[in-house]
TrEMBL record:
GO biological process terms on file: protein transport
Keyword Membrane found: yes
Tree of life domain: Bacteria
Name by which UniProt lists this protein: Outer-membrane lipoprotein LolB
Protein's UniProt keywords contain Cytoplasm: no
Self-association and partners: Monomer.
Keywords, comma-separated and alphabetical: Cell outer membrane, Chaperone, Lipoprotein, Membrane, Palmitate, Protein transport, Signal, Transport
Localization annotation: Cell outer membrane
Main location: membrane
């Protein structure tokens, strides 16, 4: 399916992007009581069964609406994932919309496995999901929901690399830009809902 290719490409980009040497690692993972709004751009790589895919992304988390656009290197959007209070949806490059109540349901339906889209904004901000089991490893990585999460920081202390690893796949997001004070928006739901 083209949607599987899109998501695999998104995940491969996150994983294959190179981490910057000598960058500080995440120290501690505080419980997320709330997550501040942000916008970000970068590259992502997904690796599964020894095969990888790459893409660019732009990401916004504002007013509890999370939108991730997956783009080609030339800037064309090949897909969008969006989560709001009504649930989660994905839009492919032909405008086909796929709906589910949770990101886990949607990724299982479209890909056959679960991607933790509903937690990405929390982990990108260096926090752990509140009131959920977790473990901190001796090297500073977080284990939560069958994922091992590590985060490398840039000079400003913001996410530079977010790496998610499970037994089935790895997803690496490399942030070229992260704005923790984005322009306010009135958007209260995914734009694809109309």
């Amino acid at each position: 399916m083209k949607f599987k290719l899109y998501v695999s490409t998104l995940a491969a980009l996150v994983l294959a992007a190179c981490a910057q040497p000598n960058m500080p690692q995440q120290n501690g993972w505080l419980q997320a009581d709330n997550t501040s709004d942000f916008t970000a751009e970068g590259r992502l790589a997904v690796k599964m069964d020894g095969k990888g895919s790459y893409a660019n992304f732009d990401w916004a988390y504002q007013n509890q609406v999370q939108t991730i656009n997956v783009n080609t290197p030339l800037g064309n959007t090949v897909g969008q994932l969006c989560q709001d209070k009504q649930g989660v949806l994905a839009v492919d490059n032909k405008g086909q919309i796929y709906h589910a109540q949770t990101a886990a349901q949607l990724s299982r339906q479209l890909l056959g496995y679960e991607l933790p889209v509903q937690y990405l904004h929390i982990w990108a901000n260096g926090k752990r999901v509140a009131d959920a089991p977790y473990q901190l490893l001796s090297d500073g990585r977080l284990q939560q929901f069958d994922w091992t999460i590590s985060r490398t920081l840039n000079q400003a202390g913001q996410a530079r690399v977010l790496l998610l690893e499970s037994t089935k796949l790895s997803v690496r997001l490399v942030f070229d830009e992260m704005n923790t004070q984005p322009e306010p928006t009135e958007q209260q739901q995914c734009s694809a809902r109309g």
